[in-house]
């Protein structure tokens, strides 16, 4: 009975208008559909800001939306806290951080990829002096220490990403393994690779790292697609967040894809400016320090408020609230109960005082905007709009400064908090499989130029250092570049570095060196490859800057060119020449016979159309050193020759024109072994990665065990309370015997006392076993109550089925051979079988209902809902058999009668008349609609065959044709 209750409980709540079996089948179909949807793909985007985290999701059938956290809010503080083995996130972590600030970690994103001596780490320590930050002994990165526990910065970020994944999965109801992550545009190689490693720790595949301003520009463009045309439109996006301020100039334009020949809108970043220490956090810290100084001046206690971590955490929280309130009010009170030594704090702060504290910060507000314009090469008057996003652009003073500076109104038509997240989730849907979105191409820009540095022997024999720009500033990416080494004949190495960094930026970004590449077997490959007709075209190194802005070395190869002479060409066999001639005739290449094959040099695609080229491409030093510059256009990259080689090729081509037969050039490539050592920050990989993954797995197991215990405890408490309430109601109490009711009450009382005494610290298994034991005692009573409650509805459904079956039977009696010979659908046996099934069902129902009424409510149930549904299924099967037979029945088609013979009279010689019988061949008229042999036509019930009418007319007509 318990199983029956569980199976039918959902269906019983539906008011059945038809048969219960139909309802159950419908439910099964719905479950199957839901299961199909649940197996679909879903992806997410994460805007992991310094202060807040937003999660965007898209799943099959569900448009882009923001995932809600467990408090049903659209953004979550990026804070994580640990206390007594427990781990909490978001608002819970912030609350815990006020009491135990050293155990609650926030504003972590800018510590990624930083060594312990980075100036950004020093600034973090000054802002939050109560954190115990130590150095990773292997990687020299940031590690937070809390007692015996230590957490690397990647581990903390990974745990935040795991929480984002949980929110996304709860929102979509589907597992999520792929994501697009938003990063500040000024993130370098170390920060980007560290974030990808953190995502791997969270079991997430990063489809792309997208810059915040690029994501916002994409979001802005997809909702204004109709306004984009072939003429470029320029916008400037200005962002002031918690940690930094940035500005980006972008263009919107329709462009045709060379490969697909399709036209798509393109958003391209043209110029970027930023200030990585100007933001709401710095304002909040200054307001915190001001409040602390004012409290010390009050002299309520001899203890310095700055020496107490808990008091500093309280001041920081109140400063954040006060900063937000002053954005809309001219003054407001700061008030904290029990700030220090049980002394309360209350102070009136005006907006003017707040602006005075941040006076030097406001002087830096316009600098990122000016830098972005300068980098783009555009004037302010060609900018269509300056669009604001980021939480701290709501500060009135910031808006006044910007409005005065640009001389026009600011655009505030973006959701300042969610624009980046929504743009990134659109990009995620575009990159993920299983989604089809309208194409919107994004082209980002390089902020920090990359160069290749290597040593080369000069004319005097001394080594000198050569620098070649690889990816210039504001070059579009993703793209590939190639650099050619012509002078090296032995193993050598080169370094990839940042180029042209400002001192402030260089200090924050860390190591200038990115990678050291060592090439081996160079002499061996040259010796084996260069022969009489083969010459070296240099060693080519292929570099890639992917759409996440991460640099990599694709491969290194030795390029050789072999000249095929006339004699070698004549060595072709006769059959080969015949085959080549035939091939040219059929391919239309006969006119090109005798021309040399084009030089087979691989061209690297520069996907960033219209990208700016590095200045070194025009430098005369390239001609002098005969080293190719990688910043040339695609055509120049394809040739990749020095000026001397160009002259040589020109002379060769002139001689070739005068020659009768031109030589063929074949390009050969040999892979050069290379070893890449990253020099900026040791990546989290190998054993280090496995150790971090184990620590996170252990934390996850603890959390899962905690959740299981809480769930089991809540379920047990709820069942006990629910049972006690129900047994006080006569509706339930009447369904159990006095002994059963007493047993349930006694067991509930025992468990209730145990829960509030010895059972408060029990584990999940104990709670689950107690609950199962209590359910075993109570479910007999619950099952009887359910049967009595659901039986009337089930009997009503049975009555409707019987009535429907009887109506069908009355119609079916008129479709037998005896009653209607032309429509003999059913046999007499089939009619009798249905009639017997209906009669038997009615008799069974009446008998069982009468017997059930004689029983008490607490007696074992005689007429169960399952018995009723079984009878319904039997009757339904008989009716469906006859219904299907009626659907398949077709009337028999009468055969067409043959033409009748005609009598003819003929006169013979001697005026004798003979009557002879002559069979004339029928006159056939062949049209598009008739044929000599009439096909058999199968008709649906109620259809009219037009050919039948034509036949009747022909058969009844008088034929006058002889």
- Silhouette: extended
Q: List low-confidence stretches.
A: 1-39, 572-651, 904-962
What is the typical, i.e. mean, pLDDT? 80
* Largest sheet descriptor: 6 strands, mixed
Q: What's the CATH H-level superfamily name of the largest domain?
A: ATPase, nucleotide binding domain
State the helicity in percent bands: 40-55%
**CATH topology name of the largest domain:** Nucleotidyltransferase, domain 5
Question: Total number of helical segments?
Answer: 28
Number of strands: 31
In CATH, the architecture of the largest domain is 2-Layer Sandwich
Structure classification: alpha+beta
Radius of gyration: 42 Å
User: What's the N-to-C terminus distance?
Assistant: 86 Å
The domain count comes to: 5
Strand percent estimate: 15-25%
What is the CATH C level class of the largest domain, in words?
Alpha Beta
Would you mind describing this structure in some detail?
By secondary structure, this protein is an alpha+beta fold. It has five domains: 43-278 and 366-443, Nucleotidyltransferase, domain 5; 281-363, ATPase, substrate binding domain, subdomain 4 (Actin, Chain A, domain 4), CATH 3.90.640.10; 448-567, Sandwich (Substrate Binding Domain Of DNAk, Chain A, domain 1), CATH 2.60.34; 686-777, Substrate Binding Domain Of Dnak, Chain:A, Domain 2; 787-887, no CATH class. Strands 1, 2, 3, 4, 11 and 12 form a six-stranded mixed sheet that branches. A hairpin with a 6-residue loop joins β14 and β15. The longest helix has 49 residues, at 764-812. The radius of gyration is 42 Å and the shape is extended. The N and C termini lie far apart (86 Å). The relative contact order is 0.08.
């Amino acid at each position: 009975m318990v199983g029956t209750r569980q199976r039918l409980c959902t269906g019983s709540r539906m008011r059945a208008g038809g048969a219960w079996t139909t309802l159950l089948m419908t439910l099964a179909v719905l479950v199957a559909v839901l299961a199909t949807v649940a197996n679909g793909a879903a992806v997410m985007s994460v805007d992991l800001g310094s202060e807040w985290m937003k999660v965007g999701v898209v799943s099959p059938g569900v448009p882009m939306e923001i995932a809600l956290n467990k408090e049903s809010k659209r953004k979550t503080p990026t804070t994580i806290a640990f206390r007594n083995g427990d781990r909490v996130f978001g608002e819970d972590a912030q609350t815990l951080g006020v009491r135990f600030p050293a155990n609650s970690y926030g504003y972590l994103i800018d510590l990624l990829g930083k060594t312990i001596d980075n100036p950004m780490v020093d600034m973090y320590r000054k802002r939050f002096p109560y954190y115990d930050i130590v150095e990773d002994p292997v990687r020299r990165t940031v590690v937070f220490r809390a007692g015996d526990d230590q957490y690397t910065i990647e581990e903390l970020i990974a745990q935040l990403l795991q929480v984002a994944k949980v929110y996304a999965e709860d929102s979509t109801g589907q597992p999520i393994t792929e994501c697009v992550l938003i990063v500040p545009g000024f993130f370098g190689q170390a920060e980007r690779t560290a974030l990808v490693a953190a995502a791997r720790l969270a079991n997430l595949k990063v489809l792309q790292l997208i810059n915040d301003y690029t994501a916002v520009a994409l979001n802005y463009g997809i909702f204004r697609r109709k306004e984009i045309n072939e003429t470029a439109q320029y916008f400037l996006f200005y962002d002031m967040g918690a940690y930094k301020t940035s500005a980006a100039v972008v263009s919107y334009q329709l462009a045709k894809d060379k490969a697909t020949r399709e036209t798509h809108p393109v958003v391209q970043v043209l110029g970027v400016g930023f200030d990585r220490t100007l933001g709401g956090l710095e304002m909040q810290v200054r307001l915190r320090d001001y409040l602390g100084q004012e409290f010390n001046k009050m002299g309520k206690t001899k203890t310095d408020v700055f020496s107490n971590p808990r008091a500093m955490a309280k001041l920081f929280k109140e400063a954040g609230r006060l900063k937000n309130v002053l954005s809309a009010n001219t003054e407001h009170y700061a008030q904290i109960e029990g700030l220090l030594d049980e002394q309360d704090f209350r102070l009136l702060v005006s907006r003017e005082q707040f602006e005075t504290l941040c006076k030097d910060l406001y002087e830096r507000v316009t600098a990122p905007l000016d830098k972005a314009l300068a980098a783009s090469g555009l004037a302010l008057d060609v900018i269509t709009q300056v669009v604001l996003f980021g939480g701290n652009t709501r500060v009135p003073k910031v808006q006044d400064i910007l409005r005065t500076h640009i001389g026009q109104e600011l655009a505030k038509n973006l959701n300042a908090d969610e624009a980046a997240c929504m743009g990134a989730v659109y990009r995620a849907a575009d990159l993920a499989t299983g989604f089809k979105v309208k194409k919107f191409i994004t082209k980002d820009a390089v902020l920090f130029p990359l160069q290749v540095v290597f040593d080369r022997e000069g004319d005097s024999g001394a080594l000198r250092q050569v620098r070649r720009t690889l990816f210039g500033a504001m070059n579009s990416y993703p793209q590939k570049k190639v650099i050619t080494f012509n002078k090296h004949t032995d193993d050598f190495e080169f370094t990839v570095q940042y180029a042209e960094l400002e001192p402030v930026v260089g200090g924050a970004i860390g190591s200038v060196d990115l990678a050291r590449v060592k090439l081996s077997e160079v002499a061996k490959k040259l010796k084996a490859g260069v022969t009489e007709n083969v010459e070296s075209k240099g060693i080519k190194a292929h570099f890639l800057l992917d759409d996440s802005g991460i640099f990599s070395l694709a491969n290194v190869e030795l390029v050789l060119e072999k000249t095929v002479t006339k004699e070698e060409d004549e060595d072709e066999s006769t059959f080969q020449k015949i085959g080549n001639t035939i091939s040219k005739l059929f391919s239309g290449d006969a006119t090109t016979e005798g021309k040399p094959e084009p030089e087979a040099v691989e061209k690297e695609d520069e996907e960033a159309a219209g990208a700016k080229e590095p200045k070194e491409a025009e430098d005369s030093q390239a001609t002098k050193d005969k080293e190719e510059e990688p910043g040339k256009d695609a055509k120049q990259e394809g040739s990749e020759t020095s000026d001397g080689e160009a002259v040589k090729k020109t002379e060769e081509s002139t001689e070739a024109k005068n020659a009768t037969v031109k030589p063929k050039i074949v390009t050969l490539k040999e892979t050069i072994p290379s070893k890449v050592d990253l020099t900026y920050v040791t990546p989290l990989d190998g054993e280090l990665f496995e150790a971090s993954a184990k620590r996170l797995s252990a934390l996850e197991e603890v959390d899962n065990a905690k959740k299981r215990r809480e769930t089991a405890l809540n379920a047990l408490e709820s069942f006990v309370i629910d049972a006690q309430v129900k047994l006080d109601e006569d509706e339930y109490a009447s369904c159990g015997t006095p002994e059963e009711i007493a047993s349930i009450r006694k067991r509930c009382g025992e468990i209730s006392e145990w829960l509030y005494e010895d059972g408060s610290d029990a584990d999940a298994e104990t709670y689950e076993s107690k609950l199962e034991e209590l359910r075993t005692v109570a479910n007999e009573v619950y099952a009887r109550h359910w049967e009595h409650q659901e039986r009337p509805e089930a009997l009503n459904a049975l009555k409707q089925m019987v009535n429907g079956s009887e109506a069908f039977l009355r119609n079916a009696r008129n479709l037998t051979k005896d009653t209607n010979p032309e429509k003999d659908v059913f046999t007499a046996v089939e009619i009798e079988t249905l009639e017997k099934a209906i009669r038997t069902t009615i008799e069974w129902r009446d008998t069982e209902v009468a017997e059930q009424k004689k029983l008490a409510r607490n007696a074992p149930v005689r007429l169960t809902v399952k018995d009723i549904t079984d009878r319904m299924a039997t009757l339904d099967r008989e009716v469906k058999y006859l219904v299907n037979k009626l659907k398949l029945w077709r009337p028999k088609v009468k055969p067409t009668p043959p033409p009748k013979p005609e009598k003819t009279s003929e006169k013979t010689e001697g005026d004798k008349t003979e009557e002879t019988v002559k069979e004339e061949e029928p006159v056939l008229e062949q049209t598009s609609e008739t044929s000599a042999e009439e096909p058999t036509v199968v008709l649906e019930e109620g259809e009219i065959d037009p050919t039948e009418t034509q036949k009747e007319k022909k058969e009844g007509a008088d034929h006058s044709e002889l």
